[in-house]
Design goal:
By secondary structure, this protein is of the alpha+beta class. The protein has helices at about 35-45, 80-90, and strands spanning about 15, 30, 50, 65, 75-80, 95, 110-115.
């Protein structure tokens, strides 16, 4: 089983290591690498693990996304959680997300971060 430690330095997010942990306040940015946390968050929103067709790289999914009902902006290909998490772990990504917006409504915000890559 992979080690689900947060990768890189995270001064501004609350780290979540278990599905039993929740935001300290609505609108708070959270970060995790825990598969159970990510899957629970996605399933609460009926989101399906996905990738963009044609973005494959060396036989694995390319761009990792979650497909939310009613938000399909691209032609997405649904993939298994096993394939999604295998790629997530191989790329050493972090899952940044929100449970709720500041107003308390459910948030679908998430972003995958590669802390070893400098995009600036």
């Amino acid at each position: 089983m992979p080690d689900h430690k947060i990768r890189g330095e995270h001064r501004y997010q609350q780290q979540v290591t278990s599905p039993d942990q929740h935001e300290e306040r609505p609108g708070r940015s959270l970060v995790t690498t825990d598969h159970d946390v990510i899957r629970q968050w996605a399933e609460e929103r009926d989101a399906t693990p996905s990738t963009v067709p044609g973005s494959e790289y060396e036989g694995r999914p390319g761009r990792l996304l979650l497909d939310f009902p009613g938000y399909r902006g691209e032609n997405l290909e649904h993939i298994s959680w096993d394939d999604w998490f295998r790629t997530f772990d191989e790329r050493e990504l972090n899952f940044l997300y929100q449970e709720h917006r500041k107003d308390g409504t459910q948030s679908n915000f998430f972003r995958l971060e590669n802390p070893g890559r400098d995009d600036t």
